[in-house]
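Morning run. Coffee first, then this:
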Amino acid sequence: MLKPHLRSMEPDPKVQRDYLIVGQGLAGSLMALNLLNRGKSVLVVDDGHKHAASKVAAGLINPITGRRHALSWRFLDCWSFLLGNYILWEKEFGKKFFHRMPLIRSFKNKEEQRLFEDKLHSGQYSGIEIEYPFEPAGLTGLKSKGVCYRLQQSGYVDQRVFIQAARHRFLQEGNLVKATWKKSEFSQFEDGVQWRNYQAKRVLFSQGYLNGTNDFFRDLPFRNVKGEILDLNTHQRIDPPILNCGKWLLPLGAGRYYAGATYDLQNMDQEITPKARYDILQGVSELVDWDWVVEKQQAGVRPALHDFKPVMGRHPWHGELVIFNGLGSKGSLMAPLLAKELTEHLENGAALHPESDVDRFRTYL
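And here it is:
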């Protein structure tokens, strides 16, 4: 377990590392932790940019998403792995950040309900714990009086708590440099790479939406999405579940809730907007009849590929360059398993899932 009173160590530039990791969001943190636990030497480069997607994400884990009630990619594999993995890191850090809670989803119209029922009866949700039909009771102010369904394999990850705990460990052990990555300070050699005075055998880029500034991977077909969420407060108190009907409402305890989210394909900035605030509050008003105080509004850009799958692995032409990115709004769900798979790939040569392997985009690189 971490000892918060220990002083930070400065990274030693004389020591060659096995890995240089650029970006300390959820994905980059998990990769660094996995490699360190395998006895590998790691140096993380991160400037603590406050608008990283991980730092403004609600961390929602939901097996069935979107207007078409689609089953999340590789959900059962990811879910079964994350349960143990997050508990492992909670024990390691002495912090609670994984919160399992049910989710109630209602339908906006009859067409949505028919679409869901067709998928349910055809077996597309095999392995998913669904209670349907479900009629919520005891939730004061709940507006949905129609039929809903309840999911049990859901919850959220407080990514801020996790990332800060991981950052604390990296700083304590001399494995993090607080700096902005610049290509002009980076060099490639036959047997490795160098950034400033630090040398490593490989560099792993986990830069989120900043991948567009990366000369080596910027031509990948990213289709980033800006999103905004609200931090709300109310005198109402409910025990979990999470509520979802287009917009979602996530209970944090003591009258605090996250509400979201918006999807903006045009504006890739981190500015909060009145329109997003209105849209979220309007959506929440369709879920519950409560009075709200908006404590905070946040915006970030989710990194996503055009096929909505993550991208990971070694550059097809430069094996010392590695990417782990494109988790979109599913980072809390997918990152633990994918970090394990990428670690196995890099260290043991294990094959990556073809739908997440960067090699599927080799013609772009």
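The two ends are 42 Å apart (CA to CA). Good start to the day.
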